[in-house]
Amino acid sequence: GQNIDQPTEMTATEGAIVQINCTYQTSGFNGLFWYQQHAGEAPTFLSYNVLDGLEEKGRFSSFLSRSKGYSYLLLKELQMKDSASYLCAVRDADDYKLSFGAGTTVTVRA
Amino acid sequence: EAGVTQFPSHSVIEKGQTVTLRCDPISGHDNLYWYRRVMGKEIKFLLHFVKESKQDESGMPNNRFLAERTGGTYSTLKVQPAELEDSGVYFCASSQYRTEAFFGQGTRLTVV
């Protein structure tokens, strides 16, 4: 099975940087995903890491260390529209199904 | 290109009734997944179709849940009879092999 932990809530100021950590313990691993979800909407794909290191995509970056079972999502130049829930998910090696953390609610304040 | 669509967006039913949820995946996506989020918990896997075949249904809670994907296109998830603990948001997702999964907006099911 999978055990995935991430903080419940984070608050930051517009224009600032926030880092959301995710730790996982898994029986199989085939990549780690970050999704953004606004209330009442579909989770939207943000990033994917399968090898160690940093993946950068505009204002969002994601890092993975497989040996430590650790990932983070970095949100830079925060905007009000970035207020959302951020979901860390690990993909199973055999079946490609996702196991999710409970999500981190990020609130961006003016 | 149309995304993953789910119907209905909300459903309120009484305990003991039957409800059928529908998911239309992105055209051409062979993989279709059902997930569920109950209040205060994380999103959890229910089952996985590859085309019309059930690849993995290890997450299905019990035999009151029946999923089908006739013809390998859209899928339905039927709950019969519904119980109070079945309340939650049911998500559908689709993907091509090895790519990221695209999610629908979910169906919020409330059993009263």
Which properties best describe this structure?
heterodimer, A: 110 residues, mainly beta, six-stranded mixed β-sheet, B: 112 residues, seven-stranded mixed β-sheet, 11 strands
Outline of the structure:
Chain A is mainly β and 110 residues long. Chain A has no helices and eleven strands. In chain A, strands 2, 4, 5, 9, 10 and 11 form a six-stranded mixed β-sheet that branches. A five-stranded antiparallel β-sheet of chain A has the order 1-3-8-7-6, with no helix packed on it.
Folded structure, characterized:
The complex is a heterodimer of chains A (110) and B (112). Chain A is an all-beta fold and 110 residues long. In chain A, the strands form two sheets. In chain A, strands 2, 4, 5, 9, 10 and 11 form a six-stranded mixed sheet that branches. Helices cover 0% and strands 58% of the residues of chain A. Chain A is globular, with a radius of gyration of 13 Å. In chain B, 0% of the residues lie in helices and 49% in strands. Chain B is built from no helices and eleven strands. In chain B, a hairpin with a 6-residue loop joins strand 9 (88-95) and strand 10 (102-103). Classes of the chains: A mainly beta (110), B mainly beta (112). Chain A binds chain B through residues 4, 33, 35, 40-45, 48, 87, 89, 95-103, and chain B through 3-4, 31, 33, 35, 41-45, 48, 55-56, 59, 91, 93, 95, 98, 100-106.
